[in-house]
Amino acid sequence: MTRSLQQIIDANPEAETFRFGDSEALSAEILALVRAGRKTATCEAAHHYGDKGDAWPEVGRRDVALEWDGRPAVMVETVEVETRRWSEMDEDFVAAQGEFRDLAHWREAYRAYFERTGGWSADMKIMCERFRIVEDFAGGGE
């Protein structure tokens, strides 16, 4: 039985919804990595969270990643959250993101992403989250 996004949220009222990436193509690429188990971590500029932004991830909370068109894609559970500065990113966390060859590749790609989505600075704070997939809604949702 396929469930609508509203049914999923009704069953998980604490859940936030979000999209990976900032384009349809990037979102699809990242969701494929999540579904394959290659991506178990993500990060975002800390300034996207708070009073006027998204809710800060919390360990144990389950959130719904959406397909670009708004259908539910996967439910993930946060297993670790920390704040780092740009300069504190390391190879271990980069590897858990599943998208990058190495730290230098991560810096190049994420600097461009942060510049597109609100700004980059060498001392910026970054929310770093590790998660596990709980449910895959592939083919579901209306």
UniProtKB/TrEMBL annotation:
Family matches, as Pfam families: ASCH (PF04266)
Residue ranges of every copy of the ASCH domain listed in the record: 18-135
Name assigned to this protein: Uncharacterized protein YhfF
Lineage of origin: Bacteria, Pseudomonadati, Pseudomonadota, Alphaproteobacteria, Rhodobacterales
